[in-house]
Amino acid sequence: MESRDFDIEFFIYRNSESINWYEEKRHELFKVFNPLKNPIRIDFVTKGGKEYYIDAELVATPSLPQGWENDNQVWQKGLLQFNASDPFIYEKNEIKTDIALWMPNLEFPLEVFEEGIEISYRSPSLIVNVENKGSDDTGMIIRFIAASQVVNPKLLNVNTNEELKLNFTMLPGDLIEISTFSGKRTATLKRNNVKINIFGKIDLSSTFLQLRVGDNLFRYDVDKGLDYLECSILHRNTLIGV
C-alpha cells in the first residue's frame, strides 16, 4: 500500500474581544501544529462510537484563508495537510490475550480452615488462539512475568513452528516485554523498577513472530520454571479503512 494523503478542516471560534485575538490564536495554532514535531498521532471516533488512530506527518504549517484579520468574524476556517507513510488505521484499544497466569481464589466473607486454603491457582492452558481481525499481518507485544526463577522463556507459533526465545534467566518479579513490530523491535526487562535493554539476549535463531490475519495458535515454554511464568500477548488490529 502507498502512503495516505488527507486533509483536516478546522474552525477557530473567536472568544475574545481583544484586538490581538487573531495573533494569539495564530501563535497557539502554529505552536501545536508544528511540522518539526512530526510524527503526529491523530485520534478519532466514528459515528458508531468506535475509537481509532493514525500516525501521520504534517506536510506544512496550517493553511489560513484570507480574511483572518476581519474584526467582524466569529469563526475562522483553516486547513491541515497530512501524509501518512504508514497508511493503516489502528484500533485505539489494545487487545490482551493471556496464555498463562495465576487466578485469584479468595472469597469474602473469608473462612480459613485448619489445613489452610488455596489463595490462587495456576491456569492450566499452555496454548491460546489470538485472532487478528485486521486487514493485514501485524506485530505484537509479548509479555513475560516471573513469579520465581525462570530460565530461557520462549513463545512458539504452533502453526508455523516459528519461535522467539530469550537466553536469559528471569528472577522473581521480573517483567519482560518484547516488541515484534516492524521498525520497532525491542526487548526490555523491568527489574526493581529499572528498565534494561536486553535485545542482545534474543536467541539468534529466533523469529520476530507476527500475527497473521485470522487465527494464530501460540504456546509458551521454558527450559526451567514453567509453573512460575505468566505470558500475555498484546496487539491492535490494523485496518485499511473504517
Question: What key phrases describe this protein's structure?
Answer:
Jelly Rolls; mainly beta; 6-stranded antiparallel sheet; elongated; 2 domains
Radius of gyration using CA atoms only: 25 Å
Task: Report the mean per-residue pLDDT as an integer.
Answer: 87
Quaternary = single chain
CATH class of the largest domain: Mainly Beta
| Main structural class | mainly beta
Silhouette: elongated
CATH topology term of the largest domain: Jelly Rolls
Helicity range: under 10%
Strand content: 35-45%
Q: Termini separation (Å)? A: 16 Å
Main sheet: strands, sense, barrel: 6 strands, antiparallel
User: What is the name of the CATH architecture of the largest domain?
Assistant: Sandwich
Please write the string of helix (H) and strand (E) elements: EHEEEEEEEEEEEEEEEEEEE
Low-confidence stretches: none
Q: So how many helices?
A: 1
**Structural domain tally:** 2
Number of E-type strands? 20
InterPro entries: Siphovirus-type_tail_C
Protein name: Phage tail family protein
Domain Siphovirus-type tail component C-terminal: 134-220
